[in-house]
Specification:
Low-confidence stretches: 18-33, 88-96, 168-203
Shape: elongated
Strand content: 35-45%
Radius of gyration: 31 Å
Largest sheet: 13 strands, antiparallel
Helix content: under 10%
Oligomer: single chain
Length: 523
């Protein structure tokens, strides 16, 4: 009896412990498998984690070159494998079921979260803790810094991971977190194998040659306008990211000065002014770009190249930008200061004192220049440029008049001191030119509460020319109309209200005629 009492308790404790271990699943196959990743030659992969938000892992590549525009796709073991060892639906990959991680440099590492539950067979909702996922990491990428969609594919490695029940990334359809470093990593081989895409694309990029001219040599620098038809490129490109060449807001378009072996070089600063619609899209029939030609690209018959990057590419606000009012956030991608000789979008709530001096009080800055003196009978010049300019000169502004008296700008001095005023005057149903003594009216149907692009030209012979919405309306003075051939810019009103969203100065074209821009066929 004493023997049973002594060892019975021990046996009972052991039995309870064994039961707990069984309950925890430590004696089944799933529990015996730990999180891990077995890389393919040329890759490393580590730290796979399975959470309610998807699969997380860290990978690197050691091919000796950059992998550009890299996308991740994670497939379960149950995913059907087709010819070439790729998942059957791999040829249909797009931004819905891949995760973009950007450029992966050689020996650099990137941590990603793949959370596309519609692809790859990765369940995430209501999964019991300890549920195991086994599958493969795939990568799609380009070897050129500019591409129209990934052209190389490879299996990074096979992974196994258990559901932790702990969310480590923001929940959502495709939440990603990437951190690229240049720390060295060990790979099992130095060469990455890849399979070619089922896409018909065989070039590094899709591009169109644009021929400028005929014209005399342009000044340096020079702002060339290029108008394209985005809708004409729908269905013309192919690849993993869709058949349209242009992205949703045209942010994937770039311009270059040269092309060699389908690889562009010499990036040119460009600025998208807009489309006839409220916003630009692949269905737009027209889009107006301005491209800065810094020198060496002068007409006649100069050829530059319009390149279509992958649809995931966005404006960068540096080489490629757009007008401030067409971005989701005002001025988000605006690079007008890099494209034009003088430019301001009046972003924020403070006047840029590097460009302007405040000489009046009837205005405010609030993501645009706000004219705020309704009913005033006094002519007011509110701000003056800190820079002076000389004729011939072209100054343009994008203006939305609302009500009251005139609003606009004068240049090469105030309109009462040798300059010319270009302005909207509602009582005359349109725009006017005024040199302090003589008014040239455009009496038409131009209305308030409408957006206008106002173009003023001042020639060296004293002639003043006003264009509204690019030659929709033209007012031209005689020679000797104004006195000053150089001076500053002024912005102001006389009892008018409205907003000026941007103002710019650009180079006068040869003979006053913008060189033509003729687009070739898609390559």
């Amino acid at each position: 009896m004493e023997y049973l009492m002594t060892y019975g308790w021990a046996i009972l404790i052991i039995s309870i412990a064994v039961g707990v271990l069984f309950a925890l699943g430590l004696f089944n196959g799933a529990a015996a498998t730990s999180n891990g990743c077995s890389p393919q030659p040329g890759f490393t992969c580590s730290n796979p984690v399975y959470t309610p938000n998807g699969i997380t892992a860290t990978i690197s590549q050691d091919s000796g070159q950059n992998y550009y525009d890299a996308w991740i796709f994670v497939a379960s073991e149950a995913e059907n494998i087709g010819p070439g060892g790729l998942p059957v639906n791999f040829s249909e990959l797009n931004t819905v079921n891949m995760t973009l991680i950007g450029t992966i440099p050689p020996s650099g590492t990137v941590t990603f979260n793949f959370n596309h539950t519609a692809a790859g067979g990765i369940p995430t909702a209501n999964i019991p803790v300890g549920t195991e996922f086994t599958g493969y990491i795939w990568i799609a990428y380009c070897l050129s810094p500019v591409c129209s969609g990934p052209t190389n594919f490879a299996k990074v490695g096979s992974i196994s991971a258990k559901e932790t029940g702990v969310s480590t990334f923001t929940s959502g359809g495709s939440a990603t977190t990437s951190s690229i470093t240049t720390s060295s990593s060990t790979t099992s081989s130095s060469t990455t194998t890849s399979s070619s895409t089922t896409s018909t694309s065989t070039t590094s990029v899709y591009y169109v040659a644009v021929t400028l001219g005929p014209s005399s040599a342009t000044p340096t620098p020079f702002q060339q306008n290029i108008t394209i038809d985005p809708s004409s490129y729908s269905g013309q490109c192919s690849g993993l990211l869709g058949s349209s060449c242009v992205s949703g807001d045209l942010g994937n378009i770039r311009f270059y000065s040269s092309m060699s072996g389908n690889v562009p070089s010499g990036p040119l600063d460009s600025w998208l002014e807009g489309c006839p619609e409220t916003s630009c899209s692949p269905s737009s029939s027209q889009a107006l770009f301005w491209v800065n030609l810094p020198g060496g690209e002068s007409a006649p018959n100069t050829v530059i190249y319009m390149v279509f990057n992958s649809l995931s590419t966005e404006f960068d606000g540096s080489v490629a930008g757009e007008a401030p009012q067409i971005s989701n956030s005002y001025g988000q991608y605006d690079n007008g200061a890099d494209v034009f000789n003088f430019y301001d979008n009046f972003a924020g709530i403070n006047l840029n004192t590097n460009k302007w001096s405040s000489i009046g009080s009837g205005y405010s800055i609030n993501n645009g220049f706000k004219f705020e003196s309704p009913g005033s009978a006094q002519d007011n010049n509110y701000i003056e440029s800190t820079s002076s300019f000389s004729a011939p000169i072209i100054t343009e502004a994008y203006i939305y008049p609302t009500n009251g008296g005139w609003i606009g700008f004068s240049q090469l001095g105030t309109y009462t001191n040798g300059g010319v005023l270009f302005y909207f005057f509602p009582s005359q149903n349109g725009w006017e030119v005024y040199d302090g003594s003589t008014e040239l009216y455009h009496t038409g149907n131009d209305a308030e509460d409408t957006y206008y692009t106002l173009t003023s030209q001042m020639l060296s012979n004293g002639e003043a020319i006003l264009n509204v919405n690019y030659n929709l309306v033209t007012i031209t003075s005689s020679t000797g109309y104004y006195a000053n051939t150089n001076g500053n810019l002024y912005v102001g009103d006389n009892g008018g209200t409205g907003t000026m969203y941007w103002l710019r100065v650009r180079q006068y074209p040869p003979g006053g005629v913008m060189p033509s821009a003729s687009s070739g066929t898609l390559q």
